[in-house]
Amino acid sequence: MSSWTACTPRAVERIDAVAAGPEARFVAADLASLAAVRALAARLAAEGPLDVLVNNVGAMFADRQRTVDGIEASFAVNHLSPYLLTELLLEPLRAGAPSRIVNVTSGSVRVAKRSFEAVEPPGGYYGFHRYGRAKLANLAYTLDLTDRLRGTGVSVFAADPGGAATEMNDGTMRSSRIVSPGLRLLWPLVRRTFERATSGSASVAARSSILAASDASLDGRTGLVIGPDARPVAPFGPATDSRTAEAVLRLSRRLAPLVPA
Ligand SMILES: NC(=O)c1ccc[n+]([C@@H]2O[C@H](COP(=O)([O-])OP(=O)(O)OC[C@H]3O[C@@H](n4cnc5c(N)ncnc54)[C@H](OP(=O)(O)O)[C@@H]3O)[C@@H](O)[C@H]2O)c1
């Protein structure tokens, strides 16, 4: 997969233009590589306590791809990499408490296959469903982590932006191949629904993540899913099933051990 070192630091300039405090910094890392995730975590951990970690990374792949680690890319980028980064940063987050972890989720969890015994579920590859399945894995992990961190001062939230016209949607959602054959029969309707749902601006969609990461109204709270209207919503039921979380954790620990073999 491509290197991400060429990414523009435009976001840093925009943050510095409005934020008080130390200057923002851009650190490049290819989050489709477990080695790069480990290197990023080591670099961040070496800097001391951490007060917020927002895992905003997300990607949808129209066609099946594998990462440098040989792992199906939707699962690697949308779940495994934020999982590993979070686990490797728990010590600095504990040291920075009260601190927060925010994992960005998606409504696509509703179309996901709920089987996590292997990286790839049985059946064909459909990018939208694989993306949703990886996001479901990450949501189940997020809610389980809440319990593990209770009493440590580290709050854990999931934030659902709802939808926005962003690079991720540009291109991947044009082809009926991204959905299962059943949904393809209804493609004009499905596509219109996608386009309606993802037509908003990224800055409005970011409200749920910003609230989860920084709003004082959430001080002392944990385990909430912040919905697209920037208010807590009920979590998607299957993500709260402890058997799902156990299966996701088993798979994640096997694919991305905290200490590499
Ligand atoms: N847009 C929607 O309708 C929608 C709906 C529900 C949830 N979400 C979620 O919202 C979050 C943001 O997505 P977005 O819509 O803003 O899409 P986006 O513009 O494509 O942003 C995705 C982000 O992930 C980063 N990324 C992807 N692959 C990476 C890799 N291998 N290594 C490092 N960084 C990588 C991108 O980095 P670069 O900036 O370097 O490209 C970018 O910052 C994602 O978690 C997504 O799943 C989006």
Order of helices and strands: HHEHHEHEHHHHEEH
User: Roughly how much helix do the residues carry, as a percent range?
Assistant: 40-55%
Strand order of the largest sheet: 1-2-3-4-5
Q: What is the number of helices?
A: 10
Distance between the termini: 23 Å
Residue fraction in strands: 5-15%
Per the principal axes of the C-alpha atoms, what is the gross shape? globular
Q: Low-confidence segments, ≥5 residues, pLDDT <50?
A: 1-7
CATH-assigned fold name: Rossmann fold
Kindly give the count of domains: 1
Q: Give the class from helix and strand content and strand pairing.
A: alpha/beta
Characterize the largest beta sheet: strand count, sense, and whether it forms a barrel.
5 strands, mixed
Write down the Rg. Answer: 18 Å
User: What is the level 1 CATH name?
Assistant: Alpha Beta
The small molecules bound here are: NADP nicotinamide-adenine-dinucleotide phosphate
CATH architecture: 3-Layer(aba) Sandwich
Please tell me the overall pLDDT: 94
- Tell me how many strands there are: 5
Primary descriptors:
alpha/beta; disordered N terminus; 261 residues; NAD(P)-bd_dom_sf; single chain; five-stranded mixed sheet; 8% strand; Rossmann fold; binds NADP nicotinamide-adenine-dinucleotide phosphate
Provide structural commentary:
With 261 residues, the chain is of the alpha/beta class. It has a single domain (31-255), classed as 3-Layer(aba) Sandwich (Rossmann fold), CATH 3.40.50.720. The chain is built from ten helices and five strands; from the N terminus they run H-H-E-H-H-E-H-E-H-H-H-H-E-E-H. The protein has helices at 10-18, 34-45, 73-88, 90-95, 127-148, 181-184, 187-197, 202-205, 207-214, 242-255, and strands spanning 52-55, 99-104, 154-159, 224-226, 232-233. A hairpin with a 5-residue loop joins strand 4 and strand 5. Helix 2 (34-45) runs parallel beside helix 3, helix 3 (73-88) packs parallel to helix 5 (127-148) and helix 5 crosses helix 10 (242-255). The radius of gyration is 18 Å and the shape is globular. NADP nicotinamide-adenine-dinucleotide phosphate binds next to loops. It comes from Streptosporangium longisporum. Keywords: Oxidoreductase. This is Short-chain dehydrogenase.
